[in-house]
Write a structure and sequence with these properties.
The protein is an all-beta fold. It is built from no helices and eleven strands. Helices cover about 0% and strands about 50% of the residues.
């Protein structure tokens, strides 16, 4: 059974940085797409970034482009989200998700992702 577990959230001042980790297990991830989503209080879950595991191609929401970087470590089966220049509006619960369909066109919609972590809170103070 595929599992993904996030870590690395916390409280940071505006302009600061955090790195989130997503440890994946229970599957062969070479054809997976891994995504990060976030959900702020009272808002819908939204796409942040995605990476195709084998190709390493990356995709970002416009709101985080140039500030966030998604990457993966093939040896550790871990996906990272490096978040720089954080803003108060980045405050949310961040979720890691896995799409095992093998698609070459990663979806930005949460329904496409089969497996989800429990989420990690990121709070950015002004």
């Amino acid at each position: 059974q595929v599992q993904v577990v996030e870590s690395g959230g916390g409280l940071v001042q505006a302009g600061g940085s955090l790195r989130l980790s997503c440890a994946a297990s229970g599957g062969t991830f070479s054809w997976y797409t891994m995504g990060w989503f976030r959900q702020a209080l009272g808002k819908e879950r939204e796409f942040v970034a995605a990476i195709r595991w084998s190709a390493g191609s990356t995709y970002y929401a416009d709101s985080v482009k140039g500030r966030f970087t998604i990457s993966r470590d093939n040896v550790r089966n871990t996906v990272y989200l490096q978040m720089n220049s954080l803003k108060p509006e980045d405050t949310a619960v961040y979720y890691c998700a896995a799409d095992g369909s093998g698609t070459t066109y990663p979806s930005r919609g949460p329904m496409a992702y089969n497996y989800w972590g429990q989420g990690t809170q990121v709070t950015v103070s002004s």
